[in-house]
Amino acid sequence: MHRSARIAVSVSAAALAAAVAAPLPAGARDDGTGGEGTGNGYEVGVEVTISGDGAPGTGGTIEVSLPPVCWWEPIPSNVADPPVDATDPKSVYEWFKDILPHLSGHAASGRLAFPDTQVFKDAIKREKAGEDITWYQISSNSKDVKPCSPEVHDVPPQRGDEVAQIYAPFVAGEPPEPAVDPETLAIEARELMVIDEPDVERNPKIDGSGPVGATFVNIPTWFWVTDPEMVGGAEGTRTIRAEVLGTGVWAEVTAETGGLSVAYPGGSQQCPPEVALREWSPGSSDAAGCTVSFPRASVGFPDGYPVEASTQWNATWEGETGDGESVGGELDPLQRSTTVNVPVAEVQTLVQGAR
């Protein structure tokens, strides 16, 4: 995943206790690390592995842009005066010691936003030993920082029930990955799902006299898809699974269709997947196929009646959050359609060889 740069947030020592429990929304972010947009439009590049019969190509690992639930950013310098240098563990420790006396009494829960004092001292030692250490804080557009926090403390209800630790030191440029909501991942997977427009073949088609490729008035005309996957095979389903690399977050989307809809001026026919797959062959019973009977010739339609072949797909999803919670629900449906022109001719007898 790519990460954003710091945000500009001004928090006085006296107000820190309230601020750490609910970090302010992020402002503009753009440091060339992959974060895009401002405010609620902020997104990060997420490496995901996709699979399933609805995955593009043969699946594999790709990068998608998603709005994170929360993420880590270097502590902004303007949290104090003089400024704090997030890349200098000693500077951060001095800032912490300055505000620590304020984190008592009614503001005592604010202390839980920071790690133990020993962590500050260890960060200084690690820096002196040659590690490149930066202090980070958790940011969130929704104020939900818990999915990113290394520790969430229970506190009395009047203090908000829970306080998450939001400050921690990490090797520069290597904070924990942003947290991604499984439903957001499912929505993206739905957009990636490959469901082709239904390409149809039909019978009869006149090869002799009359309009080229025409069918006949009041004669059942068979339609079928040229690829079973266009209607999800006989079961009418397509699936795609997306897993965020390095986390336990995953989402699997299942799209299900009722089959092929064939709509023409004056009527329509809905055919379940197994029927939409059935090709006409000599001796076939018309009752077994996806058939349409045109009551009139296509006079007034130079190229023939416009016939729309379409599939409607209901989409559901299931998945897991980073802490193993099972989630799921419904997504917006998908639709695929194509239009073909079907000339319809009047005849008294069948043209030999047309069917």
TrEMBL record:
Keyword line: Signal
Signal peptide (UniProt feature, chain positions): 1-28
Region of interest: Disordered: 317-336
Name recorded for this polypeptide: Enoyl reductase
UniProt source species: Haloactinopolyspora alba
High-level lineage: Bacteria, Bacillati, Actinomycetota, Actinomycetes, Jiangellales
